[in-house]
Request: fold
Amino acid sequence: MAAGPVTGPPVPGLRVDVDVPGRLRAAFEVPRGSVVAVLGPNGAGKSTLLHAVAGLLGDIGAVAVDGETWSAAGSTSRLVRERRIGMAFQGQSLFPHLSAEANVAFGPRSRGVDASAARAVAADWLTRFGVADLAARRPGQLSGGQAQRVSLARALATDPQLLLLDEPFSGLDIGVATSLRLELGEHLAAFAGTTLLVTHDALDAFTLADTVLVIDDGEVAQLGAPADVAARPLTEHVARLVGLNVLREGAQLTSFRPDAVTVSLARPEGSARLQWSGRVLSTAPHGDALRARVETSTGADLLADVTPAAAVELGLAAGREVWLSVKATSVQQYSAAPTPSATPSGTP
Amino acid sequence: MTRARPSLGAPPALLVAPAALASVFLVLPLVALVIDTPWSQLWGLLGTERVRQALWLSAITSLATVAICLVFGTPLAWLLARVEFPGRGVLRALVVVPLVLPPVVAGVALVSALGRNGLVGGALDDLFGYRLPYTTTAVVIAHAFVAMPFFVLAVEGALRSTGADFDAVAATLGATRWTTFRRVTLPLILPGLMAGSALAWARSLGEFGATITFAGNYPGTTQTMPSLIYTELQGDVEVARTISMILLVVSIGVLAALRDRWLRVP
Reply:
């Protein structure tokens, strides 16, 4: 992060320290312009974080954007409408009685732009998202992908300081999601403000984001650059998302790739610490290999990739008792960072 | 729309028999009224001064009632549905009391509040020399008092079932609550407003007890169709029947006209 232009420390983009009782406790800080992918299992508190930052959950702690205090513990916070946010809600949230253009123009209109100027802004954003020809249609006459484009255009049309996107690709066909992901990437690159992007897809985290925020069980579990998080995931959920095995012993984590695992029927030679006996839960094709999910006697779920030939030789099928082992040179060992609230830029 | 029904067997007689009785019970009086109406008199009666006055009065008072419900009842329904405030539950309970109040009691209550010696009516008389009872305005007030709860309940239901999430969406786009109400909430509850208006209108058209108690029964100023029917019933039953028929045809006609467009059963 570059130093501020004149004096003092650089202005942070988004600083959050919120506590939504029973649902989420999160404290973190990211620089302005960050695109933060918010990852985590269902019900972990990802959407809650977005709603809390937007002000939709009332007074729940401190939120500051670009150095402006939006809410602070013990004082009245800014109303939702006074926060310059662009929010794309999960599912359809377009006003059903307004045309696509009127939906996008709604934000500028509400913020005092006159009707014709707001229409021009809306037309411009619909064009940028490639749906200008659908301007007159009602949301009911749009496909899922088209509606999501209009929804994103509406969120960006108010020139927000903070963009909050709640699973923008959920419910879309894979092809539609892929092309929309590419388009959104371009818009996010051009967007000067800070973005929080809730997703359950690792692909979003690595193609769109420069920062990954992992939320698990209502707490921030990890914050870092996508490559760091992918290489050294601290949660089972993210490990699975990036296709790694992760074992935790206290604060010590061990990760390794499924294709580094050797499967055998007899107990293998070598370090006892890196071998496990277990039972195959399921098998499924994975690229050229067969990926087996194995429940070990220690209770962990591990993934192992074996060649089809080896799978036949081992008689690999659900219920088969096997041994798993991995070479010490193939594992990565690291410790869980005690505080996840460091700024993510650069390596720790 | 027809759908293939699963073979569950014939409906049991224990349910079919009472259902048939209920249907006959509900339809029979209307059929009797239609049969007994001296149709030849209908046009002649429509031309008489007292029937035309009563029809006109019923028309303007019921429309005024709907207007009052729209202007005052809609904000009340919105407040009850969308704003949390202390005493909301109590207010909602009080607001619907006129729904179950016998109309005559409603009339007595209105006299107590707005009558010449009433709580507010007395002050109006002392300060401005204005006396409300036995005026057309009193008719409208009586109608609004009994019809508003129907309207508020219908519109509050519509407000609860449609579009509450859009309040949050509109707020993130920078809209004030007034803008949100005007541009989002109101268009989305339009069917609910129409259903509520139809209910209020029908209630107003048939209102008798509260009106006659609070506003009296003076031809030209406070005698609406139901009051005229009541009056005629003392003398000429044939005339009462005929006027009843007129009222029946008018209400069914208006409801049918509204039904296709606004009163779809969900």
Remarks:
- Chain B touches chain A at residues 165-166, 168-176, 179, 183-184, 187-188 (CB under 8 Å).
- Residues 42-262 of chain B form a domain with the MetI-like fold fold (CATH 1.10.3720.10).
- Chain B has a mean pLDDT of 89.
